[in-house]
Write a structure and sequence with these properties.
The protein is an alpha/beta fold and 316 residues long. The chain is built from five helices and twelve strands. Residues 40-307 form the CN hydrolase domain.
C-alpha cells in the first residue's frame, strides 16, 4: 500500500533535515523577478482582480521554486514587491493584503487554508514550499484591524505592513517580519510600533530576515548580526541602483563581508527603474551574483554556502 500524502511529506521533510545536518553547507537560491505590474488606477480593484494579478506573478515564482528544488536548494528567497508590484496608494493596495498570523499559531496554510481569514496567497506559497520540500521566502502585505482606543490607529481602522513570510519544507509559517524602515514612497504602509528582530532556526544555521531599506539602519540589521548572532540573512529587496556606491551587488557584498554573515539577496527586476542586482554573498565575497540592465528577464541563482560561517577556519 502506498503511503498517505501527509506521511510522504513528513518523510521528505525528515530526509531534507538529515541531509542538511550531515553537512556544514547548504544550497541557497535567490530569484530576481521581473514583476508583472498592475494597471495604473486611482481606484481599488476587486479582490478577484487583485488575486488574478498575484497569481500571474506566483506562476513565475513557482517555476523558479520548482527549478531551485530540482537543483537541490534548501531555501529560496524571492523579491520585495515580487507578488503585486509597487506605487500603490493606501486605498489601492488594500485588495492585495491578507491577515498574516503570528507564526506561534503553528499553521500550515496548504493543509488548513480556512483556519484564519481567506488567505489564498499564503495558501499557495505554503503549498509551493510543501510540494517542493524547500524553505520559501516571499514578500506580501499584511493587514491588522485597530480601533479608536489605539491613539496611533489610522483613520481607516487598520494597519498595513510591508511583510516578509517564510514557509518551511512542510509548508508551515515559521517567520513573519514587518518592515520597519520604510522608503519615502511607501506611504501605503505603516511601520510597526517597535522594530522587530525576527530569527528562526533551521538544520543549516540560524537565519534572520529584513527588507530592503532596513539594511541601512542599526535596527534590525545590526541587531540581528551583532546581538542575535545569526548565520545568514534573508533579504527581499526592490533596490534601485542610484548614487555613487549604492549599486546593489557591490553594496550588498560589502555588507555581508563587513558583518561576517551570508546575505541571500533577491531583487526585483525593472530596468526602467534601475532595479537589478541579486546575489548570494558570503563573508569571503560573492558566491554568485546577477546584474542585468539590458533585458527584462528574471534570473535564478544558486550556490553552496557555509551553514555556520562564524565557525569556518577562513572566517574574516
Amino acid at each position: 500500500m502506498l503511503p498517505s500524502r501527509p506521511l510522504l511529506h513528513a518523510a521528505l521533510f525528515a530526509l531534507t533535515a538529515l541531509q542538511a545536518l550531515a553537512s556544514d553547507t547548504f544550497i541557497a537560491a535567490v530569484y530576481e523577478h521581473a514583476v508583472i505590474l498592475p494597471d495604473a488606477t486611482g481606484k481599488p480593484v476587486s479582490p478577484d482582480d487583485a488575486l488574478a494579478l498575484m497569481n500571474k506573478n506566483m506562476d513565475v515564482l513557482e517555476g523558479a521554486i520548482k527549478e531551485a528544488a530540482r537543483q537541490g536548494a534548501h531555501i529560496i528567497v524571492t523579491p520585495e514587491d515580487g507578488i503585486y508590484g509597487w506605487l500603490f496608494t493606501r486605498e489601492t493596495i488594500y485588495p492585495y493584503l491578507e491577515d498574516i498570523p503570528d507564526p506561534v499559531v503553528n499553521w500550515i496554510p496548504c493543509t488548513d487554508p480556512t483556519r484564519f481569514a481567506p488567505a489564498p496567497v499564503q495558501e499557495r506559497l505554503s503549498c509551493m514550499a510543501r510540494n517542493n520540500s524547500i524553505y520559501v521566502v516571499a514578500n506580501i502585505g499584511d493587514k491588522k484591524p485597530c480601533n479608536s482606543s489605539d491613539p496611533s490607529c489610522p483613520s481607516d481602522g487598520r494597519y498595513q505592513y510591508n511583510t516578509d513570510v517564510v514557509f518551511d519544507p512542510e509548508g508551515k509559517l515559521v517567520a513573519r517580519y514587518h518592515k520597519y524602515n520604510l522608503f519615502r514612497r511607501e506611504t501605503q504602509f505603516n511601520y510597526p510600533k517597535e522594530p522587530e528582530a525576527v530569527t528562526f532556526e533551521t538544520p543549516f544555521g540560524k537565519f534572520g530576515i529584513f527588507t530592503c531599506f532596513d539594511i541601512l539602519f542599526r535596527e534590525p540589521a545590526v541587531v540581528l548580526v551583532s546581538e542575535l548572532q545569526v548565520d545568514s540573512v534573508l533579504f527581499p529587496t526592490a533596490w534601485m541602483n542610484v548614487l555613487p556606491f549604492l549599486t546593489a551587488v557591490e553594496f550588498h557584498s560589502a555588507w555581508a563581508m563587513g558583518m561576517g554573515v551570508n546575505l541571500l539577496s533577491a531583487n526585483t527586476h525593472n530596468i526602467n527603474l534601475a532595479m537589478t542586482g541579486s546575489g548570494l554573498f558570503t563573508p569571503e565575497g560573492p558566491a554568485t551574483y546577477h546584474y542585468d540592465s539590458a533585458t527584462e528577464e528574471g534570473c535564478l541563482l544558486l550556490a553552496e554556502l557555509s551553514a555556520r560561517p562564524r565557525l569556518s577556519p577562513t572566517y574574516p
